[in-house]
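User: Assemble these into one structure.

Assistant: Restating your components, then the assembled model:
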Amino acid sequence: MTDADHNLTTLIVDDHSIFRSGLRADLAPDIHVVGEAASVDEAIVLVGQLTPRVVLLDVHLPGGSGGGGAEVVMRAAPTSPSTVFLALSVSDAADDVVRVIRAGARGYITKSSSGAEVSDAARRVSEGDAVFSPRLAGFVLDAFGAISGETAQADHELDRLSKREQEVMRLIARGYAYKEVAADLFISIKTVETHVSSVLRKLQLSSRHELTAWALERKLL
Amino acid sequence: MQTAAIVRPRLRVIGGVCAGFAEHTGIAVGVVRVAAAILALCGGAGLLLYVWLWAATPVSEGRTAVKSVLTQPSTADESADAAGSRAPITEILLGIALLLAGGAMIASRMGVSIPLAFIIPAVVALAGAGLAWRQFDELRRGRDSGRSALVVRALGALVLVVLGILLFFVTGSEPNIWTVFFAASAVLLGVAVVVAPWVIRLARDLAEERAARTRDVERAEVAAHLHDSVLQTLALIQQKAEPGSDASRLARAQERELREWLFAENVGGALDLSAELRRAASALENDFSARIDVITTGSAVPEAPEGLLAAAREAMLNAAQHAGGTVTVYSESSPTGIEISISDRGSGFDLDDIPDGHFGVRESIMGRMSRMGGTATIRRGPGGTGTDVLLRMPLTGTEGA
């Protein structure tokens, strides 16, 4: 998807028009906003029509059957297979964010991120990588029992993180960029990206009850 | 006339009444016991007296193990004001009833014809009613002396009332349809009197619970609204304003406060480690143009060691003051220890360059940690720039490793 770098088509989905216009103005020049949607139904229609490369998706959205961002991901993804979703949220509530991620979003960042950060994250997900905010990384460490010393023994294990994945998540939780994680662990950026994607996959597929239980209990992400 | 009160000692043979009485009057315990035994033979008068004294005198010391059926007299120091405000109606009632019974028994022994058939049921019913009302009083004043004690007392009162009323009618001359009818109604009424406090209490609890639920629902609605509107706006302000500007700082502080309020289960009480770190972060954000992200993982630490917190605060202060920009605080608390890392992207510093007189790092961070048995490591921050302070605190307390 190297072509996408030149002109990354984007759809902004948020029910606050101020936020949409603010974000639109702040995005990097190579991010091309093809449309805006304010509700679940609108977003689903526009994704199907415009087939944007990236959807910047608010977690809390009116309309549809009340499922918010997660509902958009689930219903819109089949209509446009090439589209990836990046969740944007002011919410710290883990159950919200985990729901969107498990529905299929490729990443999550907070709304207070700058335009440059959002643009960067959009580029990253469009290239197939996953985007984890420090907070999400912290939550993942907790939810997969990494803090209490649980480590996956085999690569295919979905319910625990491998040693390397834990190290990567720890550094991301400490605010390191991928490049910095790579330098710190003496691995390539590509490897870091692979690890993050694998964690995302586990987050989406794992049946660990902590993923939901923790989220509800802590209300933090 | 208030004289020194009779109190029953904690060490006792039966109820401690004789010992208490002996103590109070100065008569030898043995004499008192023999007297009580003799009195008990006089138609049970001694027994009644014993029971009355047992019920009416408190156990020595303010706290009563078996909470006696009756209030503590106003001479007991601790309860002086509480009991003083209330006439001991129950005690008087019970006392009169028991005395009457005793007197009647003696009189009947001496050949005087006394309608015992009426008096005994009356006494029993009176005692039951007294107990019931006593209970009601306790409940109303919100004194809960344990569920089981209340249940036992309630059942006792209930049995007494029923027994008394039944006795009254059954021993009466030839029962007919009306006496049975009155007996039934009287029993029902008696039970109602005893049960009334419970019903009232239940109703009160129910109302309180309902009110609490309503409050929760309202709170959730307010939270949802604030979440959608105010938090969004605050995020937007932070996004639009210059990083480190007053506007963005204010917006961030407000956002933090609001978030704390929205997601706090019940504010108050001791803050745990993550709350302490967050609080320190927001205080520093108000003073310096830095943005401090606090991420905490692991189990909650209700009472983090003060020294660890102080060291973390110092490191955060250094980062906010000298580096600015975005500072990340990451804490991890596992059963074996607590680890806090504070990293910034400033120009960094070399520990060897710090003059010895500079207390900030050497003393407040490293010294503090080593005194508590922990360690502090300072190294280059993310990407080789800035500073990364890593505080490690092993937990070797009761939990073990």
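Residues 189-205 of chain A form the longest helix (17 residues).
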